[in-house]
Design brief:
With 97 residues, the chain is mainly beta. It is built from one helix and five strands, in the order αβββββ.
Length: 97
């Protein structure tokens, strides 16, 4: 008989990691290599990560006047980047830099 861990004390993120073995959120040290406009207020960003290499991501609201990523997503900016990966859409979103 196989004993399974009880999931009562785990939050939804930990349960997802147990079931699928993948976390959608990640933290990476990056350098911004390219920023290109997408639509009116979004930006497509190419990042160079320490562990992951080249990453193509979207920065939603990065070009809007009140966007939280507006001053952070600039060419050759360096820092800790919080990424959200959506496996269904096969996209990466920058949540904070």
């Amino acid at each position: 008989m196989i004993r399974r861990k009880s999931t009562e004390s785990l939050d939804s993120r930990q349960v997802a990691i147990l079931l699928w073995g993948v976390s959608r959120n990640s933290v990476e040290e990056v350098i911004v290599l390219r920023v290109r406009p997408v639509g009116e207020i979004h930006a497509g960003v190419r990042l160079l990560g320490r562990e992951s290499g080249l990453i193509d991501a979207m920065a939603y609201g990065a070009r809007s006047q009140k966007g939280s990523l507006r001053g952070r997503v600039v060419l050759f900016a360096r820092g800790t980047c919080y990424l959200y990966t959506d496996p269904v859409k096969k996209s990466v979103k920058i949540t904070d830099l």
